[in-house]
Amino acid sequence: MYRDKKVVVVMPAYNAAKTLRQTYAEVHEQNLVDHIILVDDGSRDETVSIARALEGVQVHVHEVNQGYGGNQKTCYRLALAAGADIVIMIHPDYQYTPKLIPAMVSIIGNDLHPCVLGSRILGGYALQGGMPIWKYVSNRCLTLAENILLGAKLSEYHTGYRAFSRAILEKLSLEGNSNDFVFDNQMLAQIFWHGFTIAEVSCPTKYFPEASSINLRRSIRYGFGCLGTGLRFRLARLGLMECKLFPKAQGRA
Predict the structure, then answer these.
(1) What is the CATH code for 7-250?
(2) Which of 43, 63, 96, 171 is buried deepest, with most CB atoms within 10 A?
(3) Within 13 Å and on the Cβ side, how many CA atoms surround 49?
(4) Cross-strand partners of 13
(5) How remote is the C-alpha of 231 from its chain's centroid?
(6) CA-CA distance, 175 to 188, in Å (whole number)?
(7) C-beta separation of 232 from 248 below 8 A
(8) Tens digit of pLDDT per residue, the chain (253 long)?
(9) What torsion do the CA atoms of 160, 163, 167, 171 make, to the nearest 10 degrees?
């Protein structure tokens, strides 16, 4: 608990057997975490059996792969059902360190910002941490375009390390979002649309063979999806387009 707020960690998992124990151990060391939920998205390795052997982990299994976005929808639905006040989403591939959980919880728990991102770009250490140059360049270009379209100033939109208040998760209509990777981007755009603020903390970058990563083809599709989301946001804000992701009655003037 943090200031009487229940802290729940959710892990969207897919073939994470090699890194799950290490991620869990570090999450467990953070004494603020009340509950851990792992949603397995049809893994073909031992992820589920390992997760079920870990003390205090609630395991939910998708018998059929629902996609990264579909996995997150289940994560947040289960977290709210578990009574979460603060939800931390971290991948079990150990690319992001759970040691930042106290900082992220503190920002939300003290009502400074209702959303916190663990940014790999903030601080300028992404390349030193092993981020491939093509990923870094595409990240920076996409982020620039999205900041212009969304009227924001984030250092990156593409991190998989995120924390949310209960108020955000109850406000957003996530079921209508994509089940693919662009879900992440749509969610951030919706947060801005509803007038919430987003904080960032610098997160060390770790790239290694066991860390999950999408291939070039899916990265290109994701990039166009992000640009499409930003364009729809801008057109909806200008009143030139109606979009289910950005309902007119609830957007800012």
Answers:
(1) 3.90.550.10
(2) 96
(3) 4
(4) 40
(5) 21
(6) 14
(7) no
(8) 899 999 999 999 999 999 999 999 999 999 999 999 999 999 999 999 999 999 999 999 999 999 999 999 999 999 999 999 999 999 999 999 999 999 999 999 999 999 999 999 998 888 888 888 988 999 999 999 999 999 999 999 999 999 999 999 999 999 999 999 999 999 999 999 999 999 999 998 887 666 556 777 888 999 999 999 999 999 999 999 999 999 986 544 3
(9) -10
Distance CA 252, CA 141 (A): 26
Instruction: Return the amino acid letter for 75.
Output: C
* pTM check: above 0.85: yes
